[in-house]
């Protein structure tokens, strides 16, 4: 196995080297041996070591303290040695899994029925608890058994019902086709369904009955003593009929004066009607007469009922008037805000139009100045262009004149040279008289042609040099003029740009001023709107606060009256709630008993007769377990009801005591204020001191008396 250095694992089972792996290096598979030792301690003591600590604190203690050991001394020496071997602090001293497999604790012989013995011991303990709860629930269930036919006898004395009678209850317990296919699951499925149905029905019934009881109490408080007496009479008559087990209503015997308080009978086998008792007959006749009178005189109302209806109508009218006042106030506030916003919007639009006109006027002025400057620059450019052309013509004429003079001088010099050379040639011919005349003429002609050719070449070279010089001077002059024109254009462009920059700066300054003015205007308008909204909201809140305080005061008064009535009726309400819970649990137990009977009948029909004994035993245990669960739920419901009622009573008592204490504090503070005023306004020091001492003594006596009363109330 490759070593590791990661910090992972469950904190309480983590080995020391795993905790220190981030600092001291790696670890190997022996960390699982440590976890095995911790698991052994958990199995022996029901929790791992250091389990009561925080996880991070436990990690610190595991790394710093000694190895944990078994706390109890009744374990075998082999097991203790095995745990100590697994929990060696130094990993090198800790054995590997191969060595632990050869340990005496692992290799020793064990009886083969250990697990079955543990299971049987646990089942016996659970069965004993279920029997206790079952006996407790049986006492609750069969308290009303002798009072009517609804109570059922113990199941040992009941005959097994036939399949036709149990069909209505088989659907509630669940489908029985699955029970026929597997005989090992039916009891569990039926118990789960019956338990969930019973718990849900109990919760819903308790909630509904509590709500109905609260509504009836409120109605009794509002209707006054006469209505309460009438309700008590009806309740007494209802109690007589509900607890009487003699009157039975057969199917088809309904008439016009059926008892509205007659409880519904559960479906079952028909029973012969018993002889009616005279008390039940007179009570039912009395109720029917009351119903007829109530129907005949339904429009007659007492003065207290009329006055109460008038007060309720006035309260409703006041509430409606408050609501309509709220609506009118909100509409008025909305109109004010809309008018203010429209006026401010007009101011903003007018301000924006004025600023836009100012900006357009400035831009128009800037445009006119730019056009004027452009025309001036254009005129300067045209003037400079004409002057440059004139100077260029003069410069070219000047150069051409100089070149003409040079050419004329060259031609004059060539003429003189030609004449001199011609005379020299003639003199040379005269010096040689022996040369024929014809040869002399040819030689002289050749010399003239050479001289003319040289002069022509010299003249062509001069013309070529003059032309090159003329072109060079023209280019230089044009370059100079272009540079001057470019400099002028740059100056004009710079002037134009400076002018535009100045205009843009002025325009930006104007826009900034306009933006600042707009911002100040919007800020003033927002402040005005916010002030108006705050004022309107303050008025609305003041109105709502006043109405809410009035409503709270009225509701507090109503709650005080309601709480006083609840405190007066507390013993009766506790008893009635306890009876309701008891009745609900009895109904649930009856439902489960019927389901149990139906299931037992079905299973007895579908299973062989040899298995009936074990089947009945298993069903009996299942029923006992369900009733034990119901007993626990019953105890929990009673305790929760008592605790909630105790909390409500303590809260009401605390409220009354707080009000009484505040009244006493006001009474006790009144002499102190009187003494301070007497001390400030009195001129006679002795007289004022004596009065102050007397007032303080009275206050102290009252405070002492109040303290003794408080201690007595706490006791």
Task: Describe the structure concisely.
By secondary structure, the protein is mostly helical. It has helices spanning 16-19, 21-24, 30-45, 55-64, 77-86, 97-101, 104-107, 114-141, 163-173, 177-181, 186-243, 278-296, 303-431, 437-568, 570-606, 612-681, 685-714. α9 crosses α15, α13 (303-431) runs antiparallel to α14 (437-568) and α16 packs antiparallel against α17 (685-714).
Separate helix tally: 17
Largest β sheet strand count, sense and barrel closure: none
- Unreliable stretches: 145-281, 294-299
Q: State the order of secondary-structure elements, H for helix, E for strand.
A: HHHHHHHHHHHHHHHHH
Radius of gyration: 62 Å
Number of strands: 0
Shape: elongated
Beta content comes to under 5%
CA distance, first residue to last residue: 71 Å
- Helical content, roughly? over 70%
Coarse structural class: mainly alpha
Mean pLDDT, nearest integer?
72
EC number: 2.7.11.1
Organism: Phyllostomus discolor
Biased composition (Basic and acidic residues): 225-240
GO molecular function: ATP binding; protein serine/threonine kinase activity
Structural description of this entry:
- The protein is mainly alpha-helical.
- Among the domains are: 11-109, Orthogonal Bundle (Transferase(Phosphotransferase), domain 1), CATH 1.10.510.10; 310-561, no CATH class; 666-714.
- It contains 17 helices and no strands.
- It has helices spanning 16-19, 21-24, 30-45, 55-64, 77-86, 97-101, 104-107, 114-141, 163-173, 177-181, 186-243, 278-296, 303-431, 437-568, 570-606, 612-681, 685-714.
- Helix 3 (30-45) packs across helix 5, helix 9 (163-173) packs across helix 15 (570-606) and helix 15 runs antiparallel to helix 16.
- The chain is elongated and about 190 Å long.
- Mean pLDDT is 72; it is low at 145-281 and 294-299.
- Its EC number is 2.7.11.1.
- Residues 206-224 have a biased composition (Acidic residues).
- Residues 225-240 have a biased composition (Basic and acidic residues).
- Residues 1-106 form the Protein kinase domain.
- Residues 323-350 form a coiled coil.
């Amino acid at each position: 196995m490759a070593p590791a250095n990661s910090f992972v694992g469950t904190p309480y089972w983590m080995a020391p080297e795993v905790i220190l792996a981030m600092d001291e290096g790696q670890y190997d598979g022996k960390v699982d041996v440590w976890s095995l030792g911790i698991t052994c301690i958990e199995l022996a003591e029901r929790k791992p070591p250091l389990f009561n600590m925080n996880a991070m604190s436990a990690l610190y203690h595991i790394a710093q303290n000694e190895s944990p050991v078994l706390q109890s001394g009744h374990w075998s020496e082999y097991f203790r040695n095995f745990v100590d071997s697994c929990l060696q602090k130094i990993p090198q001293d800790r054995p590997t899994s191969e060595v632990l497999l050869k340990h005496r604790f692992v290799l020793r012989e064990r009886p083969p029925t250990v697990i079955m013995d543990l299971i049987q011991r646990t089942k016996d303990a659970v069965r004993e608890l279920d029997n206790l709860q079952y006996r407790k629930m049986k006492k609750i269930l069969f308290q009303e058994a002798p009072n009517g036919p609804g109570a059922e006898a113990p199941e040992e004395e009941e005959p097994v019902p036939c399949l036709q009678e149990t069909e209505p209850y088989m659907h509630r317990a669940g489908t029985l086709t699955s029970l026929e296919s597997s005989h090992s699951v039916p009891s569990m499925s039926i118990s789960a369904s019956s338990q969930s149905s019973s718990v849900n029905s109990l919760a819903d019934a308790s909630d509904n009955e509590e709500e109905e009881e609260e509504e009836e109490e409120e109605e009794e408080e509002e209707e006054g003593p006469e209505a309460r007496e009438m309700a008590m009479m009806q309740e007494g008559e209802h109690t007589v009929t509900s607890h009487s087990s003699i009157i039975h209503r057969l199917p088809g015997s309904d008439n016009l004066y059926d008892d509205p308080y007659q409880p519904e009978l559960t479906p079952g086998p028909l029973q012969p009607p018993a002889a009616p008792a005279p008390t039940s007959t007179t009570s039912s006749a009395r109720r029917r007469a009351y119903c007829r009178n109530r129907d005949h005189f339904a429009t007659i109302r007492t003065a207290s009922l009329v006055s109460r209806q008038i007060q309720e109508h006035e309260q409703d009218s006041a509430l409606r008037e408050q609501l309509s006042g709220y609506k009118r106030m909100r509409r008025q506030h909305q109109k004010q805000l809309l008018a203010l916003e429209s006026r401010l919007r007009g101011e903003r639009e007018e301000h924006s139009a004025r600023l836009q006109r100012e900006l357009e006027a400035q831009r128009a002025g800037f445009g006119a100045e730019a056009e004027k400057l452009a025309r001036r620059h254009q005129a300067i450019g045209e003037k400079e262009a004409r002057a440059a052309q004139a100077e260029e013509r003069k410069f070219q004429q000047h150069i051409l004149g100089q070149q003409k003079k040079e050419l004329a001088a060259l031609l004059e010099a060539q003429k003189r040279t030609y004449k001199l050379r011609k005379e020299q040639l003639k003199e040379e011919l005269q010096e040689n008289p022996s040369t024929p005349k014809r040869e002399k003429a040819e030689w002289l002609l050749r010399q003239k042609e050479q001289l003319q050719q040289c002069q022509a070449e010299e003249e062509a070279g001069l013309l070529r040099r003059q032309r090159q010089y003329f072109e060079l001077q023209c280019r230089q002059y044009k370059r100079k003029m272009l540079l001057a024109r470019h400099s002028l254009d740059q100056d004009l462009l710079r002037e134009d740009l400076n002018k535009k920059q100045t205009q843009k700066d002025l325009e930006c300054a104007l826009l900034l001023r306009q933006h600042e003015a707009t911002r100040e205007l919007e800020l003033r308008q927002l402040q005005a709107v916010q002030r108006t909204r705050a004022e309107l909201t303050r008025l609305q809140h003041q109105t709502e606060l006043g109405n809410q305080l009035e409503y709270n005061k009225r509701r507090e008064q109503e709650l005080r009256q309601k709480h006083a009535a609840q405190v007066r009726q507390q013993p009766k309400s506790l008893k009635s709630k306890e009876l309701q819970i008891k009745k609900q649990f009895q109904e649930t137990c009856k439902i489960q008993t019927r389901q149990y009977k139906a299931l037992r009948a079905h299973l007895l029909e579908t299973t062989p007769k040899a298995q009936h004994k074990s089947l009945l035993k298993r069903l009996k245990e299942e029923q006992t377990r369900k009733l034990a669960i119901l007993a626990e739920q019953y105890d929990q419901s009673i305790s929760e009801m008592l605790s909630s009622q105790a909390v409500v009573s303590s809260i009401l008592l605390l409220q009354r005591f707080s009000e009484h204490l505040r009244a006493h504090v006001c009474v006790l503070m009144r002499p102190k204020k009187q003494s301070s005023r007497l001390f400030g306004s009195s001129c006679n020091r002795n007289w004022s001191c004596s009065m102050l001492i007397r007032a303080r003594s009275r206050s102290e006596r009252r405070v002492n008396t109040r303290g003794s009363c408080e201690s007595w109330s706490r006791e």
